[in-house]
Amino acid sequence: MSEALRNRDPQKLTPYEAVLRSFAHFPRLSAEEHAAARAGLERAVEHAPDYADGWAMLSMLYREECTHRFTFRPDPFGRALVAARRAVEDAPSNHRSNQASAINCSFL
Length: 108
Fold this sequence. Notes:
This protein is mainly α. The chain has one domain: Tetratricopeptide repeat domain (Serine Threonine Protein Phosphatase 5, Tetratricopeptide repeat, Alpha Horseshoe), CATH 1.25.40. Helix content is 69%, strand content 0%. Helix 2 packs parallel to helix 5 (52-67) and helix 5 packs parallel to helix 7 (95-105). The termini are far apart. 42% of the residues are buried.
């Protein structure tokens, strides 16, 4: 499904589609894929601020900014940790929220 969404404008994706679209970033690991996935997820959490999957995936992509030096913006680990915490607050039993939290806490 993420493949079908890759050619769509990230700003026009629903929050669910943005999460699905973000999965396409990980096997490709390019600055372009990262930018598109991040843009879609940032929009998703603006429109659906309680969407734990959106926050969790955004957390993982923020961490990638430093890990792979994609579109490095200030404090990627801080933003990643804030997003992971938000995901866990919104859905404490959500596996993706807890995965994001565990991944980001390992960098502390």
